[in-house]
Design brief:
37% of the residues lie in helices and 16% in strands. With 449 residues, the protein is α/β, with parallel strands linked by helices. It has 2 domains: 124 residues, Roll (Diaminopimelate Epimerase, Chain A, domain 1), CATH 3.10.310; 206 residues, Alpha-Beta Barrel (TIM Barrel), CATH 3.20.20. Helix 10 packs across helix 11. The longest helix is centred in the last third of the chain and has 20 residues. The radius of gyration is 23 Å and the shape is globular. About 8% of the residues have low confidence.
Amino acid sequence: MHALRDAHLHLDQHGEELSCVDLSACRSKAECLEALARGAERLAPGEWLKASGARVEAWGGQGWPTAHEVEAASGGRATVVRSFDHHALVASASALAAARIDGGTPDPTGGIIERGAGGAPTGLLLERACGLVFAAMPRASDERYRGWIVAALDDLERRGFVEVHDMLSDARLARVLLELERQGRLRLQVRLFALENEFLALASEADGWETDLVRLGGLKIFTDGTLNSRTAHMLTPYRHPLPGRPFGTALMSGEEIERSVRLADGAGYPIAAHAIGDAAVRSVLDAIERAGPTTFGQRVEHAEFVDDADIPRFAALGVVASLQPCHLLTDVEAIERLMAHRGERAFPLRDLVESAEKIYEACGAELTLHRAPAIGGFASHEVGTIRMGKNPKTSVLNAWNQAHEVKNLYVVDGSCFTTFPEKNPTLTIAALAVRCARHIAAQRKKGAL
């Protein structure tokens, strides 16, 4: 079996969802409600019913079920129905009551509570409003949480994965992973990307806890929502927008994104910025350009829509376009219904690669990109690495691929990426060569070489 690597997942959510009611095969609201009824029959009295994988845009315009419809289907128990992209959910009437959400509850910052006649909540919560219900749910015991992580890791290993990047990490996850590694039960490399508070705590003590298998990858931020939720921040209006939000929702300002870039860079790490809409992508690129980070591997996660004017900026700035083309399978209905007029800018993989080629060739270099069929990844711990970073004690090369201890030695090769968590098989190698060439030229002008 070929070794695989997933650069964007959520271990705890994956493990939890393996035991949730699976709605991914539902083709209508009626099928969703029937699945909830079957799932409720298997639970103990008072236990919350959790369902995931709903793809409402594939239900022929029927829309989400209401809180009362979910309540009836689940037999009156507290129930949460999550979308496949984790950015929307419907809570049953009992779940709304547990979260104390009613007509007088204001929308939280960065979140939306959908309301019906008279302002009463319909049950649909978007983005950070989902957190109101999560906070009311019983916290998983350490034993159950550990079970989720083990289940997720076992599932991934069975499928041939050797490395994963967790994109919503915290100290709890790190502790479980390190415990499993000490017990000899962790066989995947895991890179952790955490929100600000968790990131700062993990980064401050990284030298004391990082291992060959578990390392901190960077700071995770969310700059917009998702297409299916109509919260992805777009440059052009949606055909069927949320009320009062024709362009979607910006979850961070440009200044806030820039602050995050500087914060992570100061600690020696990149950001991984969730940005699906083309307006969000542009905001992230603008912030990185203003901040001018020296830490290599700044990432834009998803980049589902990229305006033509922003395509060449990825390679020019050395930014990783961390796309997930498989999302086209789950977003195709939303693209056709909500953003058909921007469909040509969705998942612009060829444009990004060709842009990198042009910048590389402008430096007088020859670039060969092998467009062979995908055959998976590789077991990076078996082939070795030349790690990049600021700290000479833990890395060989700096952000320009210049050796810390030999100032005239530069290395530009794919091997630098074998365990580097921000590696990309095309764009970043090309962008790294451009960055390296520019640095060498600047150093020669200064007479430093």
